[in-house]
């Protein structure tokens, strides 16, 4: 009966203003009046009807299939909460699933039951304060995002405030006083930030210890360290490692199966890098080779330098991909995630030259950054470049193409970054993320559907794997600071310098499979994959990728055909020695053989190899440089 009444109201004209236009808000108000005394499965419905119709993908456009009702997981989580109505409740839901909607619906229910009187929302950033307040207003809850610690209190016309974790840490006693002044529900958004600093965790416990109810939310319920997260329960697993316990979990895999989030297609780019170390050695390496962490980090750093050709090539490919996506999704946007402000500005200049229109730049220390994000979410510009402002919780649902051009590679940061692109608005949308071929990033991409908990202890396993993959943290730190001890000799004479970078398309990773072969940027072989239509079901994407791979393979075979005989030239044999250890062993053996033939000391031969082929000593040489020396010695031995 209620559903029929909804349909009747929504179909009736409602005059809005003097011009007689039909107004959605007027019809919405009539629906709210019709529902005031309607029973709810969770209790009295008073004050909750607006939250029922809140867009889960705020701001602007609702996500596909969600406007007008709660998603199944949100209703399920509410049921789980009201079974026991615990004081503390941790809901872990994948980015893009609609945690804000769930939290505001729960807040509205608790207010309607007179369980709580006031609401405090704690968010990670200033930008999210406004976003929470705007979303709450649509749910009939008035929150003050402008509250400052100096204000000491807020007006009675508000139902509560939105503050940041840093704000609470600065005046924990004040927020404790506000919490004690009324029966308070505290919503801790992205609660893992509560462990960012010891002082933050202590302040949050002090300020919100007296709260009547605490709802903790996170899209990434794990950290790369062992800092405890406030108000989260930990229990030992079978290995004795204390793990965080979620009261309700909704992972990416389930959300993907439900059609709540988009599948992600990773476009992986390799390439040849050349740089000079602080010791003055010129190094060469290819992304994706089995190099040491130090060499991989420097090759990665070289790729991200805007002065080379790797970044422009990848940005051109990403812009082509965005053009293809916009054929089906006209307002689709792209985001480049940069390491720092200098490179962000340089990337924006390159992008503007490629796409021919202004690029939105968002830098974390600029006051207008939040406004720029809001503006970009509402317009139809193609590209935004950001450093850290576009983080967890920031909703720009039209983002469909991303370039991961940052050296940050912790599981937490990677999950948050990818979360910016997975918010589905309609069926058939697929997110496209361009990645450098770095082993740590590829491992994280492959583990995207893996649900993690936060480990409070480190494992004592010999392999150093505590079950919570922490990819190359030391490697990234070294890349952003200075070369390690092996390169410190002569540091007064040289500085690290990127010399050259070239990009090659490597493969597409989708749904656990890899597609494609190495191809030069700008060729048909590359466009076979970046030109896939932007609106396809996941099964269609997989099938089309297989077809494109087959077509690419056929082209490769045709190129190897002799135009006269029709014979197919054999492919170059794959490298026999794929690891540095094997290459070093082989090189040592070849040096020994040449030493006997030429009657020269090993050290002299190694020095000559360095002089001819370039690069540092064997211990610091890359796969590419060792292979060059191996090939040279093989040629010499073949002629002798």
Automatic annotation (TrEMBL):
Alphabetical keyword list: ATP-binding, Helicase, Hydrolase, Nucleotide-binding
Q: Where is this region: Disordered?
A: 544-574
Cited InterPro entries: Helicase/UvrB_N (IPR006935), Helicase_ATP-bd (IPR014001), Helicase_Restrict-Modif_Enz (IPR050742), P-loop_NTPase (IPR027417)
Which domain of life does the UniProt lineage start with? Bacteria
A GO term, aspect molecular function: helicase activity
Q: Name one GO cellular component term.
A: cytosol
Is Transmembrane there in the keyword field?
Answer: no
Which parts of the sequence belong to the Helicase ATP-binding domain? 80-239
- Amino acid composition bias (Basic and acidic residues), ranges on this chain: 555-564
The protein's name: DEAD/DEAH box helicase
């Amino acid at each position: 009966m209620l559903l029929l009444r909804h349909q009747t109201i929504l179909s009736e004209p409602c005059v809005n203003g003097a011009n007689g236009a039909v107004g959605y808000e007027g019809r919405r108000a009539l629906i709210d009046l019709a529902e005031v005394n309607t029973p709810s499965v969770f209790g009295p419905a008073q004050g909750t009807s607006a939250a029922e119709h809140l867009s889960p993908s705020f701001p602007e456009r609702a996500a596909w299939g969600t406007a007008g009702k709660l998603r199944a997981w949100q209703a399920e989580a509410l049921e789980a909460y009201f079974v026991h109505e615990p004081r503390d409740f941790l809901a872990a839901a994948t980015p893009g699933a609609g945690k804000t909607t769930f939290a505001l619906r729960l807040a509205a229910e608790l207010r309607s039951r007179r369980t709580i009187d006031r609401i405090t929302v704690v968010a990670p950033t200033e930008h999210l304060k406004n976003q929470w307040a705007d979303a709450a207003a649509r749910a009939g809850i008035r929150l003050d995002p402008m509250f400052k610690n100096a204000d000491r209190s807020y007006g009675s016309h508000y139902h509560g405030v939105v503050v940041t974790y840093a704000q609470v840490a600065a005046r924990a006693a004040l927020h404790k006083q506000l919490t004690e002044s009324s029966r308070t529900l505290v919503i801790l958004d992205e609660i893992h930030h509560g462990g960012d600093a010891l002082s933050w965790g202590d302040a949050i416990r002090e300020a919100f210890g007296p709260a009547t109810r605490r709802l903790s939310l996170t899209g990434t319920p794990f950290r790369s360290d062992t800092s405890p997260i406030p108000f989260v329960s930990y229990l030992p697993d079978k290995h004795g490692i204390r793990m965080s316990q979620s009261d309700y979990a909704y992972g990416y895999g389930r959300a993907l199966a439900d059609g709540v989030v988009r599948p992600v297609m990773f476009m992986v780019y390799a390439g040849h890098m050349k740089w000079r170390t602080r010791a003055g050695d010129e190094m060469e390496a290819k992304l994706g080779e089995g190099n040491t962490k130090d060499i991989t980090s420097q090759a990665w750093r070289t790729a991200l330098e805007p002065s080379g050709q790797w970044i422009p090539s990848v940005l051109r490919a990403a812009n082509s991909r965005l053009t293809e996506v916009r054929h089906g999704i006209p307002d689709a946007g792209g985001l480049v995630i940069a390491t720092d402000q200098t490179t962000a500005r340089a990337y924006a200049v390159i992008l503007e030259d490629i796409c021919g229109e202004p690029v939105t730049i968002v830098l974390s220390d600029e006051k207008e950054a939040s406004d720029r994000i809001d503006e970009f979410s509402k317009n139809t510009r193609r590209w935004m470049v950001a450093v850290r402002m576009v983080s967890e919780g920031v909703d720009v649902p039209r983002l469909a193409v991303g370039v991961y051009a940052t050296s940050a590679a912790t599981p937490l940061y990677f999950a948050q970054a990818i979360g910016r692109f997975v918010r589905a608005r309609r069926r058939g949308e697929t997110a496209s993320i361009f990645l450098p071929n770095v082993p740590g990033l590829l491992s994280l991409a492959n583990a995207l559907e893996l649900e993690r908990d936060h480990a409070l202890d480190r494992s004592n396993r010999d392999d150093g794997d505590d079950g919570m993959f922490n990819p190359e943290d030391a490697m990234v730190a070294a890349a952003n600071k200075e070369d390690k001890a092996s390169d410190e000799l002569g540091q007064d004479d040289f500085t690290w310098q990127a010399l050259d970078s070239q990009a090659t398309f490597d493969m597409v990773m989708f749904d656990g499979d890899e597609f494609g072969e190495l191809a030069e940027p700008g060729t048909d072989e590359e466009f076979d994959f970046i030109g896939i239509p932007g609106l396809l079901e996941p099964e269609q994407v997989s099938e089309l990728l297989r077809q494109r791979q087959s077509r690419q393979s056929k082209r490769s075979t045709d190129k190897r055909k002799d135009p006269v005989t029709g014979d197919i030239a054999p492919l170059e044999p794959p490298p026999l020695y794929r690891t540095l250890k094997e290459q070093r062993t082989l090189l040592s053996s070849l040096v020994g053989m040449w030493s006997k033939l030429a009657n020269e000391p090993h050290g002299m031969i190694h020095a000559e190899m360095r002089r001819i082929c370039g690069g540092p000593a064997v211990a610091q040489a890359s796969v590419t440089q060792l292979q060059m020396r191996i090939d040279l010695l093989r040629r010499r031995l073949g002629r002798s």
